[in-house]
Amino acid sequence: MDYEFRRDGFGGYRARFSMGHEAIGQWLIDEVGKDEAVLDELFAVIDRLSARQQEEFRRPGRDYSLTLTQEEAEVKANVLNISLDEDLDDLAYYDDEQLALCGLEDFAAVLTSWRAFIRNEDW
């Protein structure tokens, strides 16, 4: 998974991720931002998951939700949780920019890089 963080000309942040992982970048911007308390919580959860002290963690967000297990991280747009009343057997909704999966260690590395970026360390 490749990614790059940048600041735009208006003081905002941009997170660009390789294809299939775009949702992680949007989640960082929309749901985490500069909130280091969220990062602290996530690092603590990752430590517990890695030590097998916890099986799963869910963090619903405004636009995206995060699920962490002992092996992987999933970022999913909440719009994908909408259920339709019609029978759509032959129709499947999928958007690469709305769902991303990666290993837990890779996700922790992304969070570490994001923290350094928002602190303006080595960027």
Automatic annotation (TrEMBL):
User: What domain of life does the native source organism fall in?
Assistant: Bacteria
- InterPro entries, from UniProt? UPF0231
Family, as annotated: Belongs to the UPF0231 family.
What is the name attached to this protein's record? Answer: YacL family protein
- Per the UniProt record, the source organism is Aeromonas schubertii
